[in-house]
Amino acid sequence: MPRQKRPSTAGEAEVFDLATGAPRGDVDPDPTLLIRRHLRSGQRVRFPGNVVILGDVNPGAEIQADGDIVVMGTLRGLAHAGARGDASRVIVAFRLAATQLRIARFIARAPEDDAPPAVPEVAVVRDGQVLIDSYTQLDNGR
Questions:
Q1: Does residue 70 belong to any structural domain of this protein?
Q2: How many domains does the chain have?
Q3: Are 99 and 79 in contact (CB under 8 A)?
Q4: Percent of the chain predicted with pLDDT > 90
């Protein structure tokens, strides 16, 4: 028997965006590009929204996004979030080992630790500098 869709009983005002808590009618989310592969040296991605990579970003590969960047793997290449100047954007990866991180006009390198972290990491701009911390420490208010 084919699966049938149940009619929704919630009114439009009762449907909320999970990220902001705002009613969906009031939310204009950024477009998101999903890439399901590794990025190799010499490959570049430029997108006017968020970029999600399901794989690794190898040295010599570049990601530039006007929104946030999420790498479900190791980020070893260059990542530039908030490329149009939005310093509230973030770069998140299972392992941040980037050659260079940029958020808006702020530039940094990932720490050169030998031990991989036990949790995903996030790069954010705070007090005029790029900070890298455990994803669990991310303040949702940014």
A1: yes
A2: 1
A3: no
A4: 61
